[in-house]
């Protein structure tokens, strides 16, 4: 358990102390945020604020995680390496997107086909690798079964291993794309996505520790309620490192933000959340734990779908936080209230997770 505290503490310190150094570098290079002209007018004052802060989040997470393993003398597990790969891979795609926006002073970065291609390469590589690296108990980091709180009886390999692999790759990439876009849409107000991510990844620390304490592989007398997750404690350490990095970054990202995470951070955090949900066998439960992210996506889907059908809008502007901005709510008020809602979703998700174990 020392690794949990070390990973969280180290990543928080690195993000807290490293962010101002990165801000100075970005200011010197004049890498500032481009603001859309059709957005809320209050955002125009944010033009030129340094972006690509996700570099700090990713760097602090990797260094905090690696430092904790080095101090405790622990070897990295396949599950942890896969989540780190997914996080940094999608972060690289986001970095390229941010860099193009900044260098060309426009709100559009990578062309859609290149962005999809980059996300696809990272996602497919993750999905294929997640079904490899079986341990001595023949368990791979992921399984072809759809999971809620643990694997269900819905097996994507119902027609054989090849079909199962193909369907799993499609399913995993759907989750990766959905979560990365969800965090990206939420990242529209100072500290909003960072704070919500902090709460959600904190919940995955709890989930990982609980699964480890009730693991089928750890407990000699494992009963029917034990968890099949291959490396639960390793996943908890990764979640702790991400939580700590978000804590440190939030100090500088809270209103008025001195730096934005950009697509570099939002795609990386969304990828990490998708990876944790897949490897901890909580794919559907993640939609409850990350319910605030889901609300933001739904508001965008509803807005686009309703407008195409009727020519009218449901919200003043989507995603949801912009609707409340145009209603006259203050930015800090929206962020704090959305943090509270995120906390309620996390409490509900963790409560369901625990209640399922109690009920057996």
Automatic annotation (TrEMBL):
Pathway: Cell wall biogenesis; peptidoglycan biosynthesis. It catalyses: UDP-N-acetyl-alpha-D-muramoyl-L-alanyl-gamma-D-glutamyl-meso-2,6-diaminopimeloyl-D-alanyl-D-alanine + di-trans,octa-cis-undecaprenyl phosphate = di-trans,octa-cis-undecaprenyl diphospho-N-acetyl-alpha-D-muramoyl-L-alanyl-D-glutamyl-meso-2,6-diaminopimeloyl-D-alanyl-D-alanine + UMP. It comes from the Bacteria. Its main location: membrane. It is found in: Cell membrane; Membrane. GO terms for biological process: cell division; cell wall organization; peptidoglycan biosynthetic process; regulation of cell shape. One of its GO terms (molecular function) is phospho-N-acetylmuramoyl-pentapeptide-transferase activity. The chain crosses the membrane at residues 6-27, 48-71, 77-96, 154-179, 191-212, 232-252, 259-278, 284-307, 334-355. It holds the Pfam family MraY_sig1. Mg(2+) binds at residues 184, 263. Its EC number is 2.7.8.13. It is an enzyme of class 2 (transferase). Keywords: Cell cycle, Cell division, Cell membrane, Cell shape, Cell wall biogenesis/degradation, Magnesium, Membrane, Metal-binding, Peptidoglycan synthesis, Transferase, Transmembrane, Transmembrane helix. Its cofactor is Mg(2+). It is a multi-pass membrane protein. One of its GO terms (cellular component) is plasma membrane. Belongs to the glycosyltransferase 4 family. MraY subfamily. Catalyzes the initial step of the lipid cycle reactions in the biosynthesis of the cell wall peptidoglycan: transfers peptidoglycan precursor phospho-MurNAc-pentapeptide from UDP-MurNAc-pentapeptide onto the lipid carrier undecaprenyl phosphate, yielding undecaprenyl-pyrophosphoryl-MurNAc-pentapeptide, known as lipid I. This is Phospho-N-acetylmuramoyl-pentapeptide-transferase. It comes from Cellulomonas chitinilytica. The lineage of its organism: Bacteria, Bacillati, Actinomycetota, Actinomycetes, Micrococcales.
